[in-house]
Amino acid sequence: MSDRRQHPEGFSAPVHASLVAPILVVGLPRSIAFLYWTVVAALIIGMHQLWLLPLALLGHWGLVRLTRFDPHFLAVIRAGLRHTKDKYP
After folding, report:
1. Residues 64 and 27 sit within 8 Å (Cβ to Cβ)
2. Residue range 28-54, pLDDT digits in tens
3. Do residues 75 and 31 lie in contact, with contact meaning Cβ atoms separated by under 8 Å?
4. Kind and range of the H or E element at 24?
5. Is 33:25 a contact under the CB 8 Å cutoff?
6. Any idea what the Cα angle at residue 27 is, between residues 22 and 31, rounded to 5°?
7. Helix runs in the chain, H state only
8. How far apart are alpha carbons 5 and 2 in whole angstroms?
């Protein structure tokens, strides 16, 4: 059964991919990228700890891999943290 047969005539509309795809900055969701690199920049510049830069790049690579696996992982983490544990026996 094709996609056109599932909807009555006149009740389908094309949806642009940008309306359903997450907004990514350097491969990460925008909020995570800004927060992550702001903290990294504060640690590297403020504490003069240049050895943190390779660790930060490795952490960025891991977050990008996680984003490729599940683009909405931040929403899942937020829901899990917000979920109350009192419903379990």
Report:
1. yes
2. 989 899 999 999 999 999 999 899 999
3. no
4. strand 24-25
5. yes
6. 60
7. 3-6, 30-47, 52-69, 73-82
8. 6
Tokens encoding 47: 């504490």
DSSP element (H, E) containing 25: strand 24-25
3-state secondary structure of 86: helix
The yes-or-no verdict on residue 72 having pLDDT over 80 is yes
**CA 22 to chain CA mean position, Å:** 7
What Rg, from alpha-carbon coordinates, does the chain have?
Answer: 20
Q: For residue 36, count other CB atoms closer than 10 A to its CB.
A: 16
Residues in the chain: 89
pLDDT-based confidence at residue 82 (cuts at 50, 70, 90): confident
- Alpha carbon distance 4, 62 (integer Å): 40
DSSP 29: E
